[in-house]
Write the structure tokens for this entry.
Amino acid sequence: MRAMKGAFYQGKKRLSVEEIAPQPPGPGQVRITVAYSGVCGTDFHAYLGHMDQRIKPPQVIGHEMSGTIAEIGEGVVGFKVGDKVVVRPLDPCLKCPACRRGYSHICYHLNFMGVDSPGCFQSSWTVPAHTLHRLPDDIDLKEAALIEPTAVAAHDVRLGQVSEKDNVVVLGAGPIGTLVALLGQNKGARVLVAEINQFRIKLAREIGLEVVNPLEIDLAEYVAEWTNAAGADIVFEVTGAEANAEMMARLPRARGRIVVVGIFAEPAKVDLRRVFLRELQIQGVRVYQPEDFETAISLVAAKALPTNHLISDIRPLEQIQATFEEIERGADFMKVLLKCSK
Amino acid sequence: MRAMKGAFYQGKKRLSVEEIAPQPPGPGQVRITVAYSGVCGTDFHAYLGHMDQRIKPPQVIGHEMSGTIAEIGEGVVGFKVGDKVVVRPLDPCLKCPACRRGYSHICYHLNFMGVDSPGCFQSSWTVPAHTLHRLPDDIDLKEAALIEPTAVAAHDVRLGQVSEKDNVVVLGAGPIGTLVALLGQNKGARVLVAEINQFRIKLAREIGLEVVNPLEIDLAEYVAEWTNAAGADIVFEVTGAEANAEMMARLPRARGRIVVVGIFAEPAKVDLRRVFLRELQIQGVRVYQPEDFETAISLVAAKALPTNHLISDIRPLEQIQATFEEIERGADFMKVLLKCSK
């Protein structure tokens, strides 16, 4: 067996890549040879030490990936060695009120794999079989590494109830905002993206999105004109930026909807008077449910999205520390993939 | 004809009651002899001068009432002199995007009668016939004066999708909060009211509501225990108080709903992280639609609500200035009615 390696969070801004022995799958588990892992904003937060209450060093982090099944534990049915798979990295308690109601993806005691337990920045990842989604044999495993963030966007667009002819505004064109915009277009909606970062604006335009820079225009006025004075049907807030918490309520039409995707570390000011005046609906959304992974797999497998254009670079796992340092310096990345095995 | 009178807003904290000639109904209008008018928080805001941008003195204010048709204008069908009626005091433009979409109650250019045009604090009110709802002949016109606020509560409970077995928390036990709680109970829900005012706490308990004082307990902890750790199904924010904008998101269960009834003059801090974590839905609600008036009429006519217990006093219209002065001094009123005609 080739040398296995893993990237361990060792404390604030320190990651080490070390050789590790593969963990044999226990009952109900499988061991996956990880092909590619994507670097997510959450991983960057972890790197910065913001999640030290949940991550106990040394711990392998990472939760976006693609791979193939290497080994199957006792009692696992429906999968075989060599199957291409992705992991839906949620391990819920199945006992709390959320789980009992059928919302195990927002379990009150959720184990988010790669944060609360070991993640995929390693050659070999051992996970519960219930987290697996099988991929078509002919899928490109590089593109498949983007299924997890695509599933986030699929969940957001589904709970946002986006449909044909909706005028949709997306605040923020990072990986998730861009995917939300693309999936909105895929649903037949007319989509406007608001972004201030020049690299992201350029990239979003290259893949055919309509983008405005709210530093250069009055966004509320622009959206009013763009919708012939009605207001947007649906607004996705995908920045977590304080200013957008206030802006988001100024954009929708009467009975329009705001989908809160961005994570706000602190309570933020919302224009509740506008929520009242226009009877707006604000919908919080978090991660994904199994059907969102299936939607994402279908879209990526069908090459319905410009997935390759979102991959900024592919690097060996050994370069993880350097990559996070580049991100910290403000590197122009959309999605960086780490190659985790041969 | 007896002397007609009207209460005119003359500027900040000044109301004058004067004799006025009744206004004959034009085409499509009716003239109503107003029996009783209720004093609403909005009227008090007007009295304080907070709505001077919309109210041009001298103007008759007021929008909660009951009465009988006195005179019918050209082209009005379906009503006759002597019919008991209430007015749904909304006169929409019927041209804006909200109206065209069927949400004329939140028209972008809404004429809210009693604010943007003359109101019901007068013996004789001339209004468009499309604003009328007929009452059963045997209804008590004192109780009927509470139909308008009851319609607000009916709208809130309808958009909040309250149903049997829901655990509902109502923040605030003023007239609207109390009615929301009562209508929630009427739907079969289990209702908890949070209120800090001793008079309102006492009154709410007298009419059978379960009430806690959040100054005496930790409300979030209490609601968690009250719902066996799940969280509330639906939370109604009916105070417009900054602290409750932040509190409201701490109370619902996974995928629970918050209904924003209270009016927040300024953007207020909302715990959007909690909205995200539990995939909460926030629904803004405003005034009412025709079906909410019909619901309110049915409930009041059937004496399904302790309406009489909510009427703190009935006074002649001439005492309007003194009444607002008492409210300003913090008088213990739930709902005061003004008798507008013999």
Summary: Residues 161-284 of chain A form a domain with the Rossmann fold fold (CATH 3.40.50.720). Chain A has a mean pLDDT of 97.
